[in-house]
Amino acid sequence: MKRTALLLAGAGACGCALGLAPGATAAPVPAGPITFTATDGQLKAGKFPAITTVKPDAPATIRGTVAADGTVTVPSGGISLPTASVQVTQPIPATVTLAFTPTATATGRIDRASGAITSPLRATLDVAVSALGQSCTIRGAQFDLGTGTVQVPSKANPAPPATVPLAGAPLGGDGAFAIAGLSTAALPAAQPASNTVCALVNDQIGLPAVAGVRLAGRIAVSAPKLTAKVATPRATKRGRSVTLKVTVANGGSGDATGVAVKAKLPRGISGTRTVKVGTLAAGKRRTVSLKLRTSSKAAKRSRIALTVSGDGVTSRKATATLKLR
Question: Whole-angstrom Cα distance, residue 39 to residue 55?
């Protein structure tokens, strides 16, 4: 049974694409980077009962982004799952180790007003199993995860077929969140099947079998905050070039991505209209230059409207006035 618990921990970690405690008051979800730390997890697979897989001293961490339209994106590199090891006594004493490797970007959609997932977040990973000098892999296990309740098929013996409910919960005002989900198909068999460890794993799960998972923890919302400061150049003659320097700062608690500076140029002024800043880490600033050309048609006081924007971040506006003679 301990061996089974460890294997289930692997599939549970797969589901760890997000999750947290039920019963909290719903809270709106701001756009931008998010970090989810799961400190409790359960998995139900095949003929085994629900088993705790993630613990406070061995958490799973998921870092992703919520777009303005509610699209959730979690890159495979943003999912960090602990390697699990357990001592087993059957059929012989051994240490079984599972290592989890996310293999694809997980995407879904969340209702930013209620904190509920409206389109399942699909997570995919490989689970490497090793024991007794042998190793095998469960490849491409996929779970569709949401904030509702799922019914997981049960094959527990000697009880008759039944279901086990695993409940998710929308984001609460205290940051609590839970995700529950089912594998999109029967779990893949551990390979190579001729391997003793793989054969034992497949037999213990009772393949073909559908698995369910629930993860609980807290979401920390990283909130970038952009500001812009313009260094107005000295007065110059019409027909000459001028460089406008804009310093963009991120005074928030999270990295800002897709940052750009856009300029709306008045009559008689031509040149750079957009400068891409890219990613601006929290607490950092960057100065960019807009190279402009003035003409005889430009007003003596030419006003340039600037907009600083980023992915899921409130845009900021600034102005610069060129003094021409």
Answer: 5
Q: What is the CATH number of the domain that holds 260?
A: 2.60.40.10
Q: Which of 173, 212, 221, 168 is nearest to 21 (CA)?
A: 168
At CB < 8 A and 24+ separation, what contacts does 300-303 make?
Answer: 300/324, 300/325, 302/266, 302/268, 302/269, 303/266
Give yes or no: residues 29 and 52 share one domain: yes
- Burial class from Cβ neighbours inside 10 Å (0-12, 13-18, 19+) for residue 210 reads middle
pTM over 0.85: no
Contact predicate 146/117, CB 8 Å: yes
pLDDT in tens, 203-249: 777 777 888 888 899 887 667 889 999 998 889 999 999 999 999 99
| Enclosing domain of residue 115 | 2-221
- Counting the structural domains of the chain, the total is 2
For 129, 193, 195, 197, the CA distances from 133, given in Å and listed in that order, are: 11, 16, 11, 9
CA 77 to chain centre: 9
DSSP string spanning 3-51? HHHHHHHHHHHHHTTS---TTPPB----SEEEEEEEEEEEEEETTSPPE
